[in-house]
Amino acid sequence: MTAVPGGSAAPVAPRRPAVLGRVRLGDPVVAVWLAALVVTLVGWIVVTADGGDFMTRSTVTGILQNSVALGLIAVGQSVVILTGSLDLSVAYLVSLGTLVAAEMMESGSVLTAVLAVLALSAAVGVANGLIVTGLKVNAFIATLGMAFILRGYIEDAYAGPAGHVPASFRRLGYDRIGFVPVSVFLLIGVAVVAWLITRRTRVGHHMYATGGDEHAARLSGVRTGRAVVLAHVLCSLCVGAAALFLAARLGAGAPWAGTDARYDLESIAAVVLGGTALAGGRGGVTGTLGGVLVLSVLDSIFNQLSVDPFFKNVVRGVVIIAAVALYARPRSDRAAGRPRRGDRGGTKQGGAPGVPGQEQSA
Length: 362
Known about the structure:
Layout: E1 2-3, E2 9-10, H1 16-26, H2 28-49, H3 57-82, H4 90-107, H5 110-133, H6 139-157, H7 167-174, E3 176-177, E4 180-181, H8 182-200, H9 202-212, H10 214-219, H11 224-250, H12 263-273, H13 285-305, H14 309-337
Antiparallel strand pairs: 1-2, 3-4
Helix pairs in contact: 2-13, 3-8, 3-9, 3-11, 3-12, 3-13, 4-5, 4-6, 4-11, 5-6, 5-11, 7-11, 8-9, 9-11, 12-13
């Protein structure tokens, strides 16, 4: 209520719903899922005009199936990027994971193979995290070096596909419930766990704080090194889950399973499309899943239209650049027109409150 002359009070119009509405529309998570819907509708129209049939059960199943491996890796990538780090070793770790899984399933039990792949993935994640935090090596260089190490081992030890995946485990890659692949539930489960860790635990809050401002987080008592290492471990475990899924799909280990699909760059593209900032501290798993869906739908459209691979990559590149530009622009506009948190309602250096360029008089 606001007092007016004459002793009466005029009600103040509530503004919160309008503000919340603007926030929702400007939320990258909402934007990427709306983009996925728009891309699907446009693809439906274009494919139908070309004489094809896009919205069929087989097409939807294929899109969901193709989203699983990339989705698992992108979920892990989004966790590590939230801390301001990065992982370029995921493609070779996927390839090695399929080989280890298939070889151990051929000579041992499925459970032993699953545990071995997850243990290998965790070890690579710990190594990446310790190199970044302990040796103070830039994450790009550290994980690229790890990628070369894994690549060297794969090329030395394997000349082609190896091992054999039993039919019981291959059901993970091919079974469906209706038109929904069973593997989609694996992706959903991993995504839910990652979301709970990043959004509902102290460790997750520390990851956001580390990515937002590592120095300030450290001064606030956050063990930033531990947060980065844990993020790398979680990322690698997600990659291990993707390797197990691909082994089930392929029926054997494949040295090219991760590199031919370019999961390193594709996962980063999905994370960026989902609104997660490469600098860290902003974004999350929900938007990443939307980015994965956009890329999978685009691939399905291009395949049905028999689009030239060069043009396909050009379109994907344009989509990624446009998405990043749209996400960054409102944020920079707000930063330019809004006083800093420490200056809100107070004195700014060299200016009056809220007015740059003028000094507040005593």
